[in-house]
Amino acid sequence: MTSVLNVDSIAAKDGTSPVELTKQSAAKAWINFDGTGTIAVRDSFSVSSIDDDGTGLYSYNLSNATSNANYNCNSNAATTGIATSNRAAASIPENTSSVLIGARNMSNAAVDCQNMHGNIHGDLA
Q1: Would you say 58 and 92 are in contact if contact means Cβ atoms under 8 Å apart?
Q2: Running DSSP on this structure, what letter comes out for residue 66?
Q3: Does 12 reside within a domain?
Q4: Residue 49 lies inside a defined structural domain of this protein
Q5: For residue range 59-82, what is the model confidence (pLDDT) as tens digits?
Q6: Which among 6, 40, 112, 113 is least buried, having the fewest CB atoms inside 10 angstroms?
Q7: Is 104:55 a contact under the CB 8 Å cutoff?
Q8: Phi, psi at residue 119, to the nearest 5°?
Q9: In the chain, at which residue ranges do the beta strands (DSSP E only) sit?
Q10: Which residue range(s) make up the domain with 86?
Q11: Could you give the number of structural domains in the chain?
């Protein structure tokens, strides 16, 4: 017998908290921050803190650890203005609870960027 579940919304038991997704494909964490000057997080989900590790290099720490360090992480970087808009970003898992993210310009030099974004996909512990 086939079942159909029709709902308008799904909420946590308390009615206000976000619903925790486990063993699903939704992003488990994401961050949007300004990487110039004193770094400032604009918004995030499941990120507890961020570190400035030098020019164009940052790491962010996850509120909830992943089940292993083989999760997928993506990032991008941009700077406002046409002359400086060509940026590339890369991120790698450092361990089950932090991600290293870096930005470079088209000459492959490390640069701080105004618009840094990162997200991870994987199973939570």
Answers
A1: no
A2: B
A3: no
A4: yes
A5: 999 999 999 999 999 999 887 664
A6: 6
A7: no
A8: -150, 160
A9: 29-34, 40-45, 47-52, 57-62, 72-78, 87-95, 98-105, 115-121
A10: 44-121
A11: 1
